[in-house]
Amino acid sequence: MTELRRKRILWSLQKHRFGKEIDLFKTGGGERAALQLGVPFLGRVPFDHQIVEGADFGITFVRKYPDSEAAKAFTQIVAEVINFVSEEDSK
Predict the structure, then answer these.
(1) What tens digit of pLDDT does each residue of 58-87 get?
(2) Closest to 24 measured CA to CA, from 47, 5, 6
(3) What are the structural domain ranges in the chain?
């Protein structure tokens, strides 16, 4: 990706992020895919620019911003995965 294209995408995302929910990847696609594949839908992670910034610098987002909505969503998804694996192991 060119630097100019990257900047345009970041600008576009930034102008929509302040206190608003943005439908970055179309709502409902994950649920439909999970249903079609016969696997559980684990959840949604709200867009947070700090995830991208943290990843760029090797910072673990959930540890740095544990009270953010995105970190709470990640944590809930991990709990769902652990629960699912535990149930599968006990069968």
Answers:
(1) 888 899 999 999 899 999 999 988 988 888
(2) 47
(3) 3-89
Q: What whole-number distance in Å separates Cα of residue 40 and Cα of residue 31?
A: 8
Q: Which residues contact 49 (CB under 8 A, 6 or more apart)?
A: 13, 14, 17
Q: CA-to-CA distance for 71 and 62, rounded, in angstroms?
A: 5
Q: Distance between CA 66 and CA 78 in Å, rounded?
A: 14
Instruction: Please report, as a single letter, which amino acid is at residue 52.
Output: V
- pTM summary value: 0.61
With tokens 């911003």, the residue in question is: 65
What's the token pair of residue 23? Answer: 């439908």
Nearest residue to 47 via CA among 85, 77, 13, 6: 13
